[in-house]
Design brief:
The chain has 351 residues and is α+β, with helices and mostly antiparallel strands. Among the domains are: 113 residues, no CATH class; 66 residues, no CATH class. Strands 2, 3, 8, 9, 10 and 11 form a 6-stranded mixed beta sheet that branches. A 5-stranded antiparallel beta sheet has the order 1-6-7-4-5. β9 and β10 form a beta hairpin. The N and C termini lie far apart (126 Å).
Length: 351
Amino acid sequence: MNRRRLTITLALAGIIAAVLAVHTIDAPVQPDAVREMSKPAPLPENTQTVEMAPVLSVSLPPPPMLAEPTPTVQPLAAEITPVREVAPMVAKTSPPQNPDLKIDMKTAITPMKAVEKVRPPKAEQPLALKPMSPKPAVKQPAAKRPASKIIAKPTPKNPSAKTAPAKPIRVSQDVAQKNGRPLLRLLEHGDGPSVEIAWPRDRRARTHLHRIFAQCYGMRVALLAADGRLFDADSPRGTPWAINTDRFSGFVRRSSGGVPLEERQTVMRIRNRHGLGPGAAPVRVFPRRADAALLGGLSQIVGSDYRRARRIQATYRLADNRVRIDSIRVDGAAHSGAIDLSQAARRGCTL
């Protein structure tokens, strides 16, 4: 370690001596007096001369080699490419498929108006529900029909003879209770004639009649499944309608012909609510008082032929928001008279 320090010290001393020598050589020439004064004084005789240690040469590492300069790359001269002019494309018109056909573009073509087909409404088809458990038959006393209430006239033998317009029969609640309700029970169990009541042909009249039946008579729209179960818009999802047979009639009518928009919307809601397919038929259910008034009025007009009849046809009419049933035919034979169902409507119902 001491040797290393000595070597470093000597190297530094040599470097300092070299620097001083350079400065001495470059200094200007001084006068003689100064030169004499600058001479070193002689050393005394008893002074021992100290020999200087030889200066060791220090070798420094060579400077780093410079990287060779990167040769400059000169771009190649671009080849001169002649510019070609491209002519624009010209649209070609294809010849018409039929050269003999000439179209005059100046003449305006107006589309034809679609002809609306008017289909006559079909009569309601009665659908009988499954019979309930048989109840003990109650013997009803034979109701005496007052002669003043029957205003039906027999069919004239001469069809060309002019007859006076039929006067409507207003069925009272007593007559509906005595005559209509027993006939309704027979009809529910499959006994009695089939009754078909057609709706008006006019679309507005059908919509108005549907609104009157729903708001004033308590008519309900439902779907009848193939197994005989009824589904309405108020029952829980997937649960059939637990119909109250003491309140609603089992004389169910199938909706056919020109169905009003409100009824179609109700049918769609019922299908979506219960997940029913197209096999479920839309039907209309009326309260018992309305069907009892209907059958009671028909029995008064038809008379004794009602129990022997097979098919009774009629048509709904509207007169000042009053529902009437006229154009009554029994097995194809026309009967004069009409039925006024106003007594079966809710009290105070106005439209």
